[in-house]
Amino acid sequence: QAMLHIFGLLFALCVVNHWVACGWLGIGSLNVEHRWTDKYLQASDSLLYRYFSSFHWGLTQFTPASMEITPTNATERAFTVTLIVMGLMMFSTLISTITNTMNHLRQLNLARHGQETLVLRYVSEARLSLELGNRIMKHLRTDETAQRQRLRRSEVPGLKRLPASLTRLLQEEIFTPVITAHALFAHVQKSDAELHSALCAEALFEESFIS
User: Are 36 and 72 in contact (CB under 8 A)?
Assistant: First the structure.
């Protein structure tokens, strides 16, 4: 999830930079005397090359990178200054978020490694057999995911704003596969849909028994 978060931030940066590139390319197409497109591009250059030149320029406004394209008139200069100010905030926020995320991942890995080290130390000091030690370590590693509690509806604040009708349908869809495994409730679902819906909405709730 942490890596997905980082990739999401990078994707958001690319989306923002796409609009910046389009704006920079549009400014370069204005009917003025001096334009960056006249100075740095050739008439024979393809639209794709023009776009990626503009995209490259946009990235240099958000990062410490540089390139040969620079403003050539007052409008381009004002646009560039505005982007640099915005880039200072966006780039610092991006770096800070990535750094915090990586530190969190590092702490999680250190904690997991520390637990495994203690187990290995105990196995060694207790002189357990190699087979038993391997089985213990395998179980601990594979059981880690299973021990994570599933997210419950009550833990999602946004779902509390749903109207009663949607909440009822949500409850019914969550609990129907669970209770219809019993023949009695399967019969209730088929014979009395209203009672089945009421049972799901009023009589059942989610609970985790994993500590």
Answer: yes
Paired tokens of 168: 């009822």
pLDDT of residue 211: 46
In angstroms, rounded to a whole number, what is the distance separating the alpha carbons of residues 185 and 37? 72
Q: How far apart are CA 100 and CA 91, in angstroms?
A: 14
Average pLDDT of the chain is 84
Rounded (10°) CA dihedral 149, 151, 153, 155: 90
Q: Enter the DSSP assignment of 204.
A: -
- DSSP codes of every residue in 20-72: HHHHHHHHTTSS-S--HHHHH--TT--HHHHHHHHHHHHHHHHSS---S----
pTM as predicted: 0.52
Q: Are 54 and 79 in contact (CB under 8 A)?
A: no
For residues 20 and 76, is the Cβ–Cβ distance under 8 A? no
Phi and psi at residue 53, to the nearest 5°: -65, -40
Q: In terms of Cα–Cα distance, which of 41, 46, 102, 103 is closest to 72?
A: 41
Q: Which residue, among 1, 21, 14, has the nearest Cα to 94 in the 3D structure?
A: 14
